Amino acid sequence: MVDEATALAMAGATTVVAAMATTAWDSTRDAVVRMFRSRDTAEQHTVQGQLTAHDHLVRQTEDTEQVRQILLPVWGQQLETFLNQHPDAAGDLSALISRTRHELPRAKQAWVVQNITASAPRSTALGTIHGNVIQHNHYGSPTEAASPATAPQGESDGQGQGQGQGADGGRTPEGSA
Q1: What is the pLDDT of residues 15-26, one digit of tens each?
Q2: What is the pTM of this model?
Q3: Of 127, 100, 129, 128, the residue nearest 13 (C-alpha)
Q4: Given the DSSP bridges, would you call strands 171-173 and 163-165 parallel, antiparallel or unpaired?
Q5: CA atoms within 13 A on the CB side of 125
Q6: What are phi and psi of 62, to 5 degrees?
Q7: Which residue from 21, 135, 160, 172 lies 20 to 30 Å from 32 (Cα-Cα)?
Q8: Distance separating alpha carbons of residues 79 and 6, to the nearest angstrom
Protein backbone atom coordinates (compact mmCIF):
# COMPACT_ATOMS: atom_id res chain seq x y z
CA MET A 1 0.00 0.00 0.00
CA VAL A 2 1.34 3.44 -0.90
CA ASP A 3 1.18 5.70 2.15
CA GLU A 4 0.51 9.43 2.12
CA ALA A 5 4.17 10.40 2.59
CA THR A 6 5.21 8.28 -0.39
CA ALA A 7 2.46 9.68 -2.61
CA LEU A 8 3.25 13.27 -1.58
CA ALA A 9 6.98 12.68 -2.08
CA MET A 10 6.43 11.35 -5.60
CA ALA A 11 4.13 14.28 -6.43
CA GLY A 12 6.81 16.62 -5.10
CA ALA A 13 9.55 14.86 -7.05
CA THR A 14 7.51 15.01 -10.24
CA THR A 15 6.90 18.71 -9.75
CA VAL A 16 10.51 19.56 -8.87
CA VAL A 17 11.92 17.57 -11.79
CA ALA A 18 9.35 19.06 -14.20
CA ALA A 19 10.44 22.55 -13.13
CA MET A 20 14.09 21.92 -13.99
CA ALA A 21 15.26 23.92 -17.02
CA THR A 22 12.06 26.05 -17.04
CA THR A 23 11.18 29.57 -15.98
CA ALA A 24 9.77 28.13 -12.74
CA TRP A 25 13.11 26.63 -11.72
CA ASP A 26 14.61 29.43 -9.61
CA SER A 27 11.59 29.80 -7.32
CA THR A 28 11.13 26.01 -7.10
CA ARG A 29 14.79 25.39 -6.21
CA ASP A 30 14.71 28.16 -3.60
CA ALA A 31 11.51 26.75 -2.04
CA VAL A 32 12.99 23.24 -1.77
CA VAL A 33 16.18 24.60 -0.20
CA ARG A 34 14.16 26.71 2.28
CA MET A 35 12.06 23.67 3.21
CA PHE A 36 15.19 21.62 4.03
CA ARG A 37 16.94 24.49 5.83
CA SER A 38 13.91 25.28 7.99
CA ARG A 39 14.12 21.76 9.45
CA ASP A 40 17.90 22.03 10.01
CA THR A 41 18.46 18.70 8.28
CA ALA A 42 21.82 17.07 7.68
CA GLU A 43 21.10 17.28 3.94
CA GLN A 44 20.47 21.03 3.94
CA HIS A 45 23.98 21.84 2.70
CA THR A 46 23.93 19.35 -0.16
CA VAL A 47 20.37 19.83 -1.41
CA GLN A 48 21.07 23.08 -3.23
CA GLY A 49 24.12 21.57 -4.93
CA GLN A 50 22.14 18.48 -5.97
CA LEU A 51 19.32 20.60 -7.34
CA THR A 52 21.73 22.79 -9.29
CA ALA A 53 23.62 19.79 -10.69
CA HIS A 54 20.41 18.00 -11.71
CA ASP A 55 19.03 21.13 -13.38
CA HIS A 56 22.32 21.42 -15.27
CA LEU A 57 21.97 17.80 -16.45
CA VAL A 58 18.48 18.50 -17.78
CA ARG A 59 19.63 21.68 -19.54
CA GLN A 60 22.69 20.06 -21.14
CA THR A 61 21.13 16.92 -22.57
CA GLU A 62 19.31 16.44 -25.84
CA ASP A 63 16.80 14.03 -24.30
CA THR A 64 15.49 16.06 -21.36
CA GLU A 65 12.58 13.70 -20.77
CA GLN A 66 14.89 10.71 -20.30
CA VAL A 67 16.97 12.62 -17.75
CA ARG A 68 13.81 13.70 -15.94
CA GLN A 69 12.64 10.06 -15.75
CA ILE A 70 16.01 9.09 -14.26
CA LEU A 71 15.90 11.90 -11.69
CA LEU A 72 12.31 11.26 -10.64
CA PRO A 73 12.94 8.28 -8.31
CA VAL A 74 16.05 9.98 -6.90
CA TRP A 75 14.03 13.00 -5.77
CA GLY A 76 11.09 10.81 -4.79
CA GLN A 77 13.32 8.92 -2.36
CA GLN A 78 14.99 12.09 -1.08
CA LEU A 79 11.63 13.77 -0.39
CA GLU A 80 10.11 10.61 1.12
CA THR A 81 13.02 10.27 3.54
CA PHE A 82 12.70 13.95 4.41
CA LEU A 83 8.93 13.63 5.04
CA ASN A 84 9.41 10.53 7.18
CA GLN A 85 11.90 12.44 9.33
CA HIS A 86 9.86 15.68 9.30
CA PRO A 87 6.13 14.92 8.91
CA ASP A 88 5.37 18.56 9.71
CA ALA A 89 6.87 19.49 6.30
CA ALA A 90 3.95 17.92 4.38
CA GLY A 91 2.08 21.22 4.24
CA ASP A 92 5.16 23.04 2.93
CA LEU A 93 5.68 20.43 0.23
CA SER A 94 2.01 20.52 -0.76
CA ALA A 95 2.17 24.32 -1.08
CA LEU A 96 5.37 24.07 -3.13
CA ILE A 97 3.70 21.57 -5.49
CA SER A 98 0.64 23.76 -5.97
CA ARG A 99 2.61 26.96 -6.50
CA THR A 100 5.09 25.36 -8.89
CA ARG A 101 2.42 23.69 -11.01
CA HIS A 102 0.88 27.11 -11.66
CA GLU A 103 4.29 28.62 -12.50
CA LEU A 104 5.29 25.91 -14.98
CA PRO A 105 5.11 26.74 -18.67
CA ARG A 106 2.00 25.22 -20.24
CA ALA A 107 4.01 22.55 -22.09
CA LYS A 108 5.53 21.30 -18.82
CA GLN A 109 2.23 21.32 -16.93
CA ALA A 110 1.30 18.19 -18.91
CA TRP A 111 4.50 16.50 -17.72
CA VAL A 112 3.36 16.80 -14.11
CA VAL A 113 1.46 13.56 -13.79
CA GLN A 114 -1.74 12.69 -12.05
CA ASN A 115 -1.09 9.54 -10.06
CA ILE A 116 -3.97 7.21 -9.29
CA THR A 117 -3.67 4.69 -6.48
CA ALA A 118 -6.20 2.24 -5.13
CA SER A 119 -5.22 -0.23 -2.47
CA ALA A 120 -6.49 -2.99 -0.25
CA PRO A 121 -4.67 -5.39 2.05
CA ARG A 122 -1.80 -7.03 0.11
CA SER A 123 -2.73 -5.39 -3.20
CA THR A 124 -2.33 -2.05 -4.93
CA ALA A 125 -3.51 -0.82 -8.33
CA LEU A 126 -1.48 2.03 -9.79
CA GLY A 127 -2.15 4.20 -12.82
CA THR A 128 -1.03 7.51 -14.19
CA ILE A 129 -2.09 10.20 -16.61
CA HIS A 130 0.69 11.92 -18.62
CA GLY A 131 3.51 9.78 -17.29
CA ASN A 132 4.96 6.47 -16.22
CA VAL A 133 4.03 4.35 -13.23
CA ILE A 134 6.92 4.23 -10.78
CA GLN A 135 6.30 1.83 -7.94
CA HIS A 136 8.30 2.12 -4.75
CA ASN A 137 7.41 -0.33 -1.99
CA HIS A 138 9.04 -1.26 1.25
CA TYR A 139 7.17 -3.56 3.60
CA GLY A 140 9.13 -4.27 6.73
CA SER A 141 12.72 -5.44 6.79
CA PRO A 142 14.19 -7.77 4.15
CA THR A 143 14.34 -10.58 6.72
CA GLU A 144 10.65 -10.12 7.51
CA ALA A 145 9.76 -10.29 3.82
CA ALA A 146 11.72 -13.53 3.38
CA SER A 147 10.47 -15.17 6.56
CA PRO A 148 7.96 -18.02 6.12
CA ALA A 149 6.24 -16.78 9.28
CA THR A 150 5.38 -13.45 7.64
CA ALA A 151 4.48 -14.80 4.19
CA PRO A 152 0.77 -14.95 3.33
CA GLN A 153 -0.84 -18.35 3.74
CA GLY A 154 0.20 -20.70 0.94
CA GLU A 155 3.16 -18.56 -0.20
CA SER A 156 5.87 -19.62 2.25
CA ASP A 157 6.95 -22.54 0.06
CA GLY A 158 6.83 -20.47 -3.15
CA GLN A 159 3.72 -22.32 -4.39
CA GLY A 160 0.50 -20.50 -3.55
CA GLN A 161 -2.74 -22.45 -3.60
CA GLY A 162 -4.47 -22.27 -6.94
CA GLN A 163 -1.31 -21.09 -8.67
CA GLY A 164 0.95 -22.89 -11.07
CA GLN A 165 4.33 -22.20 -12.60
CA GLY A 166 4.42 -20.00 -15.71
CA ALA A 167 6.79 -20.50 -18.67
CA ASP A 168 9.14 -17.87 -17.23
CA GLY A 169 9.19 -19.51 -13.79
CA GLY A 170 6.76 -17.03 -12.23
CA ARG A 171 3.47 -18.03 -10.63
CA THR A 172 0.35 -17.76 -12.71
CA PRO A 173 -3.28 -17.88 -11.62
CA GLU A 174 -4.86 -21.30 -11.83
CA GLY A 175 -5.97 -22.15 -15.34
CA SER A 176 -3.79 -19.56 -17.08
CA ALA A 177 -0.50 -21.47 -17.18
Answers
A1: 999 999 999 999
A2: 0.62
A3: 100
A4: antiparallel
A5: 2
A6: -80, -35
A7: 135
A8: 8
